[in-house]
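[User] At your convenience, examine this fold.
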Amino acid sequence: MVNKLKNLVHLLTERGIDGHWKIKKDEIFNILDLDIRQVYQDIHRSKTPLLNFHKELYKDKDSGTLISLLETLGYFQAERLFVQKGLHLGYDDIITLQEDFLKEIQTATEIHTMDFYTFLNMYDHSKNFHLAYPLYIEEFFPLAYLKKQTLDSFLIGKPNYKTNPGRTRIEEMLDELVKRRILDYYNLFSPVLKQLREFILTQREAPEIRPRERIGEDKGRETLTTDPLMKYRTLLNLPRQFDLADLKQAYKKMMREYHPDVNPRGLEMSKRINEAYGVLLESKKRSN
C-alpha cells in the first residue's frame, strides 16, 4: 500500500519539474490499483465525506484536496510524503511563511531612514495622505524584495522545498497570501505610518487625516488607556510581560484558529493578528 502511494508521489514529482502537475482521477485509481466500487464505499462510510469528490482532474493547487481523498481511502502517510517531495505546503509551514514575511518587514523598518522630503513631494502631488502613503511604501519597501527575502529565509533548513516543485509552490502561496490580504502589505508598516502622519500634521494645515481603523478600537468612544500596546496584547491574549517565545506561540495559536484556509470567516481577523504580531515584534525587539 505504501509502495503504491510512493509510486503516485514519484509520478507527480516527475510531472511537476516546473512546479506544476496534474493527474486524472482515473489515473490515480489505476496507480493505486483501487476498485472504484470500494472507493465509493469508503467515501460513503467516512465521517467527513468529500463534497468535491466529483473532481475528475487534480492539479498542484488541489494538493490538499487530493491528500484528503487519499487519507479517506486509508493512505494516512499521504501528507508526509507530499510535503517531503515539495508537492504540498503543510499548514504549519504556511504559518511559518507568514511569520518570516512579518519578520522581514520588521527588519526593513528597523534599518530604514525616513525620507520626509520624498514623502512631502508625494503628498503635494496627490493632495491625499492615503494616496501618498502607499507610494512611499512601494518606493522604499518593494514587495518583490520582501518576498525574495522571505523565501530565502523560509528555505533555510528545508531542502525538500529548495527545488521545484516545492519552491514554485511556496512562491505561489506567498503571492496568494498577499493577494488575499491575509498578509496586508500596506498596513504592516505601523511605525512608518505613524511617523509620516505626524510629519504631515506638523508641516501642513491640512484637513484632518483620519487614521485607518486599528486593532481593537471602539469607534464610539476614546480608548482610556496609557498603554498603546494593550489592544494588540489583548488580541493575542498576551500578558503585559511576555517574551518573543510567548509572542510566537500566541501568534501561531491564533492563526490556526482564524486562518482563512481553516476558517472561511477569518480573513479580517487574520489581518489584525498579523498586524498585531508585527507591532509587538517591533516593540519587543526595540526594548531589548
